[in-house]
Amino acid sequence: MKTYSTIQVAKLLNLTPATLHRWIRGKRVDAPPLQSLAGMEVRVWAEKDVERVRKYKADHYWGKGSRKKGRGKKKSK
After folding, report:
1. Helices 17-25 and 47-60 sit at what angle, rounded to 10 degrees?
2. Is residue 45 a contact partner of residue 57, using CB atoms and an 8 Å limit?
3. Residue 36 predicted with pLDDT over 90
4. Percent of the chain with pLDDT over 70
């Protein structure tokens, strides 16, 4: 069974790591528990965990925010 880090999951799903961390912090996605690995606390993601995040993204995420065009100052003549 292949496992992934949080950063790898974000890259697989075309998200920024900050977005994935925000979803975890906000309890929008169920993240695997922290594990101690070489003296560090890490999350080890399995395929089923990645699929849960993929489903959340498909249902709730529309992509990066963008500014609306034409909202700047109007040119005066």
Report:
1. 90
2. no
3. yes
4. 82
